[in-house]
Amino acid sequence: MKPNEENTEVEEIQEAVIVSSQSVNPMELDVTQDLLDKAGQMVKSGLLPASVQTAQAAVAIMQYGRELNFPPMASFVNIFVVNGKPSLATKAMAGLLYKGGVRWSVLQDYEPEFKEDGSTRDYVTTIQMIRDGITNKFSFRYTDAARAELTKRDVWIKYTKNMMYWRCFSMLADRVAPDLLLGMPDAAMMMDVTKQNYTMNEAGELSISK
Description:
The protein is an alpha+beta fold. Helices cover 46% and strands 22% of the residues.
């Protein structure tokens, strides 16, 4: 690799992190070619999640993780680069919200709504969050997921109730505490939008699938 190409890679990483998060201080990034080389070695080692394919992605994830006070390995587990943009696992969102003083309760957990004739009209999940004494409530319905063609995806078919909960949670979290999340969206939501395959077990743990 030529020297000017190395400088270009470093500058691209710095620009991507600075543009994506206004709270990042560019003087603290210290993205060097040595860091890129080490990140590349980590990728080649096979010890990182399969979703981290390049040194550039690894560095970006570590930098965002530092902004969120995540240790490096926790960053790789909880931050995903989807379509070139960083996003958060929903369980990581929950941890950040709780640490930031947000509290929540589940009012409806994939519960049926009935028509006047007694037949099932829909299923709904409703979550309530309280931050600084202000209460916000949000509902996500199965028909909402169906309109977005989510219910055709394998992970939604296998874990419908769980996916409904986490989608409702992340959409409400984005409204209540975007600052605590550095404006990063739900990784599962981003992968649904980009039609990328992933799995999420009943514990809410997210992983990329081929």
